């Protein structure tokens, strides 16, 4: 579907120069003389390369139609993560580089959103947060206050996170899957 370049926003996926690009940033620039232009920073969905592109406001770009589906995480096999589509029950394998850093927070049975273009997986979106158990946590240092500092801890999946001093081994906590930060103690 063709759209005016002026309508491009962060997160839009467009076909440009025979490739799929996700818009990371777009801003309208109005020079003192001449027509306004749209400056976009885009990332190639397949190679990961970034590109800055300038469009005139009257230019049109082809907006890609992506399909979203709910999938359940099954298991990891080397570099492949295996998922099952919740509606068609088809299984699909997605490479580790497509999922990226949040892949370390995948849990058995977790429901994620997979975006595909013509059957090829482009991105996997995990839930905003997940509950993990602390496997190891450093001891509390005397005089350390809860508001001023955090201590390192290791989750049951082996990932290191920073937690408040009152969190001990065996405690279940909520972790933000986007960046691995501590949110709160899990409610039982």
Topology of this protein?
Elements: E1 2-4, E2 13-16, E3 19-29, E4 37-44, E5 50-56, E6 60-63, E7 67-77, E8 80-85, E9 91-95, H1 96-99, E10 111-117, E11 120-125, E12 129-137, E13 151-155, E14 160-163, E15 172-176, E16 182-185
Antiparallel strand pairs: 1-6, 2-3, 2-6, 3-4, 4-5, 7-8, 7-10, 8-9, 10-11, 12-13, 12-15, 13-14, 15-16
Name the overall outline: flat
> How far from one another are the termini?
48 Å
Average pLDDT number: 87
| Unreliably modeled segments | none
Structural class: mainly beta
Can you summarize the main beta sheet? 6 strands, antiparallel
Name the beta content range.
over 45%
What's the multimeric state? single chain
Number of helices: 1
The succession of helices and strands, N to C, reads: EEEEEEEEEHEEEEEEE
In the sheet with the most strands, the strands line up as: 1-6-2-3-4-5
Helix content: under 10%
What's the number of extended β-strand segments?
16
Radius of gyration: 21 Å
């Amino acid at each position: 579907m063709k759209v005016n370049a002026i309508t491009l926003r962060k997160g839009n996926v467009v076909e440009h120069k025979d490739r799929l690009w996700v818009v990371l940033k777009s801003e309208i620039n109005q020079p003192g003389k001449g027509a306004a232009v749209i400056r976009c920073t885009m990332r190639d969905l397949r190679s990961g390369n970034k590109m800055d592109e300038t469009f005139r406001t009257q230019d049109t770009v082809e907006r890609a139609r992506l399909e979203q589906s709910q999938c359940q995480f099954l298991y990891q096999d080397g570099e492949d993560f295996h998922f099952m589509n919740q509606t068609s029950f088809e299984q699909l394998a997605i490479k580790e580089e497509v999922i990226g850093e949040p892949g370390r927070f995948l849990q058995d049975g977790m429901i994620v959103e997979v975006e595909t273009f013509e059957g090829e997986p482009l991105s996997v979106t995990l839930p905003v947060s997940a509950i993990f158990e602390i496997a190891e946590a450093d001891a509390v240092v005397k005089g350390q206050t809860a508001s001023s500092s955090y201590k390192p801890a290791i989750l049951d999946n082996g990932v290191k996170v920073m937690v408040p001093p009152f969190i001990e081994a065996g405690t279940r906590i909520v972790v933000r899957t986007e960046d691995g930060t501590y949110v709160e103690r899990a409610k039982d």
